Amino acid sequence: MDYRYDHILIRYGELSLKGKNRNSFIKQLMVNVKKALKSFVTLEFERQHDRMYIYLHDENAEQVSEVLKKVFGISSFSLAIKTKPDMDEIIQACLDSQDLDACKTFKVAARRSDKTFPIISDQMNRLVATAILKNSNWKVDVHNPDVKVVVEVHKDAAYIMTDRIEGAGGYPVGVGGKAMVLLSGGIDSPVASYLMMKRGTHIECIHYASPPYTSQNAQDKVMELAQQICGYQGDLLVHVVPFTNLQLAIYQHADESYAITLMRRMMMRIATGLAEKRHAQAIATGESIGQVASQTLESMQAINEVTSTPIIRPVVCMDKVEIIDLAKKIGTYETSILPYEDCCTIFTPKNPVTKPKIDRCKKYEDRFDFETMVNDCIENVESIWIHPKKEDKTEEELF
Ligand code: ATP
Ligand code: MG
User: Fold this and answer.
1) How far apart are CA 111 and CA 124, in angstroms?
2) In this structure, which ligand is nearest to the CA of 295?
3) Does domain 7-166 have CATH number 3.40.640.10?
4) For the chain, which ranges sit under pLDDT 50?
5) Could you count the other beta carbons within 10 Å of the beta carbon of residue 98?
6) E strand or H helix at 123
7) Nearest 5°: phi and psi at 78?
8) Which residues does the UniProt record annotate as the domain THUMP (predicted)?
9) Any residues with CB less than 8 A from the CB of 315 and at least 6 apart, and which?
10) Which ligand 1 atom sits nearest the alpha carbon of residue 295?
C-alpha cells in the first residue's frame, strides 16, 4: 500500500438492486461508515449517487481500510488519488502512485464515465503506459500484471486507483430492523450473529449464564466473542441472564430427557420478553438441523410453540464444515473452541428426546410457576455494552 494515495473510493454493490430503498440504504451506509471511522478525526466524507469518497488527509490508509472491510453494504473499495480531469495531471498522479524503483509488470485500465472528456480509454491507456515505461524499468503484462493502474475520469475529477479491495458485502446494519441473538460460547451462534448483521439487521445478544455451574471464564469467553463480532455493527449490547434457578427448577420437575427442550422453551420465553423490551422484531439462534440430538424439526416445533416472535436460524441448513469455515473467516473460531462449559453442557442429559411432544412439555411446565421465574430472569438481566477495540496506532503516529 502506498502513502501517496489521498482518497478511498467506496462501491455499494448489492445496494444497486434495491430500487426504492436505495436512498435510505446509502444514507445508513454513510452513517455506519462515519461511525466505524470516528476515531480517525481528520477524515472527510462525500456521498455521491453510486460511490462514496473518503478524503484521508493525515490518516493511515491501511488502518482505515481494515475498519472498512467490516462495514456491511460495501461491495468493494479502492485507494485513490484525486486529480483534475486533465491528462497531464492524470499521468503525473499515475507516476506518483507507484514505487517506480521496484521492478514490476503492469497494466493500465482507464475509463471515461464523462464521455465529453476528449481522450478515449484506449488512448489514455497508451499515454499512461508510455509515461510509466519511460520513467521506470517496468514491463507491460496485460494478462497477469503485478500492478493494475486504474484510471477513472468523471466530469469534475479523475481518480487513479489500486485494484479493488473486497468489502464485506450485504446490507448496511440498521436497514433490516433489530434482532436478539442467543449467543452461547460455541461455534455456531457467533456465525449466526454475523449473518444477521450482514443482512442489515442490528443485533443485541442474550447469554444465559448458570453460575456457579458455569464459570466466569465461560462468560468471559462469550464477551470475547461479542468483542470479535461487534466490529461489524459498532457497539453491541449483551444481556446476561441469570439462568441458574430456572434450570434447577426444570431438572427438579421434569423428566431428564425433556430438560433440554424445556430449557430452550424457557430461553425463548425470556428472549421474547427481552425482544419486546428492546423493540426487536425477531430472535436468532445458531441451531442447525440434526447437528445434535435436540436440534430436530420436531424440537424446533416444540421450541417455537412458546412464542409468536419469529425465530431466525441463519445456519439452519449449513454443514458444520461450512459454519467452521465462516467462523474462521470472521475470526471467532479459535475463541469458540476454548474448552469452557456453557449452561447446556453442564446439564446434558444422557438421552435427550429427539422428538419432543408439546403436550408433555406443557405437563412438566404445569408443575411449577415458571412464569414468575421467567419474569425474574428478564428483570434481573445484566446488560453490558461491548465496543470495538481501538485500532493499534502505527509507530509513525506515536512519535
Ligand atoms: P453453538 O456453537 O452456537 O453453541 P451448539 O451446536 O453448541 O451451538 P447448542 O448448544 O445446542 O448448539 O445451542 C443451540 C443454540 O442455542 C446456540 O447456537 C445458541 O443460539 C443458543 N444457546 C445455547 N446455549 C446458550 C446460552 N448459554 N446462551 C445463549 N444462547 C444459547
Ligand atoms: Mg453451544
Assistant:
1) 8
2) 1
3) no
4) 1-3, 392-399
5) 20
6) helix 121-134
7) -140, 145
8) 62-164
9) 188, 191, 192, 195, 286, 287, 288, 323
10) 11
CA of 201 to the centre of ligand 2 (A): 22
Q: Do residues 132 and 160 touch, judged by C-beta distance below 8 A?
A: no
Task: Tell me what pLDDT residue 1 has.
Answer: 43
How far apart are the C-alpha atoms of 48 and 9, rounded to whole Å? 11
Domain residue spans of the chain: 7-166, 178-386
According to DSSP, the residues that pair with 47 across neighbouring strands are 52
| φ/ψ (deg, to 5) at 110 | -105, 150
Closest ligand 1 atom number to CA of residue 288: 6
Residue with grid cell 450485504, as numbered in its chain: 170
For 314, the grid coordinates are: 441463519
Burial of 150 per CB tally in 10 Å (0-12, 13-18, 19+): buried
Instruction: Tell me which of 220, 228, 321, 344 to substitute to probe ligand 1's pocket, judged by most ligand atoms within 8 Å of the beta carbon.
Output: 344
pLDDT of residue 397: 43
| Spatial contact of 189 and 182, defined as CB atoms under 8 Å apart | yes
Q: What pLDDT score was predicted for residue 102?
A: 85
pLDDT digits (tens, 9 = 90+) for 48-64: 877 899 999 989 999 99
Q: What cell numbers appear for 336 in the block?
A: 469458540
CA end-to-end span of the chain, whole Å? 21
> Residue 117 CA to chain centroid, in angstroms?
40
Best CATH choice for the domain 178-386 from the list 3.40.640.10, 3.40.50.11540, 3.40.50.620, 1.25.40.10: 3.40.50.620
Residues with CB under 6 A from ligand 1: 182-184, 186-189, 206-208, 285-287, 291-292, 342-344
How many Cα atoms are found within 13 Å in the side-chain-facing hemisphere of 16? 8
